[in-house]
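Z., the sequence and structure:
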Amino acid sequence: MEHGAHESEPLPDRPAAELSAATKDAEILLEVNDIKVHFPIRKGVLIDKVVGHVYAVDGVSLAVKRGETYGLVGESGCGKTTLGRAILRLTEPTGGSVLFDGVNVADLKPEPLRQIRRRMQMVFQDPLSSLDPRQSVQSILEEGMRAHGLQTGDGAGSKRLRDLLSAVGLPTSALRKFPHEFSGGQRQRIGIARALAVDPDLIVADEPVSALDVSVQAQVINVLEDLQADLGLTYVVIAHDLAVVRHISDRVGVMYLGALVEEATSTDLYANPLHPYSRALLSAVPVPDPVVEDSRERILLTGDLPSPANPPAGCRFHTRCPWRQPTRCDTERPVLTEFSPGHRVACHYAAQIAAGELAPHRVSETVI
């Protein structure tokens, strides 16, 4: 068992009162406006020709308050990770703007971008491949600090390094070791400590626990929550595990094929999903009560995720939507509109679906 680890416990929901108290009056730290990331498709040997684009992220707008956790969910290929990397400009946006504390990151030259990157860090999905196997933990932690001109202290005994390891639940002896000497959960703690080393305000966590055993996922999530409470951090958490997102997030955005289709507080989204895709995602999550599990509604989707190189016209979800209405859904792309305070949805018929006035009309044995 890892240093400081405890038996895994189920992840409860965060209290709604706690969420609203933490973020109700907070200022906007991150604002993403109509961000696009289109990758060119090239063809030819002697003549390099662009024959199309992959629309990985296509017009996403969202805002994250200082001190809150914004969760991004959706199936593989929906553009979550690309959006997270575009926010930090690890991937160059094709269009739109990313305002971090009022500064448009998308327009910054290399040196100003390097300076602001100290305040925007990333925790990667695979802790093994994201850590240099040839560097000790001490070198890994000091590398970013040196790059940004921060004091590293007096070697392995420095209070700064001891405090970083203590914050993520690792002993000081870890400084002399190398990544291969740790478990997956411990390596992810090192990745978190590396992000913390430069005193960031925002951390984008890309699937921070998906590569870990279930028995240690809760421990890493608890570390992230404790650090947020102690340091006032702001998180964008990218995940496909809806239980993790439900537990850690203040607000949740649901992505489908490069677009944001629904956004709400974690409590509202899980209690009252409005978009057909959100409903399908949540209906696929098992309930640990056999009576409820047997009686609850299951929404089964047909077909596969369309290619982001050739997205459908109109509503991008209409090719798989059980509530699809001909003509309008096929030709008119819905706009992300506020349905109720703090709850936005991009669906022409969200009100009718929520009121039970529109019944699903297509069922398949294929579950996403």
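Residues 259-354 form one domain. The chain has 13 helices and twelve strands.

Let me know what you think.
H.
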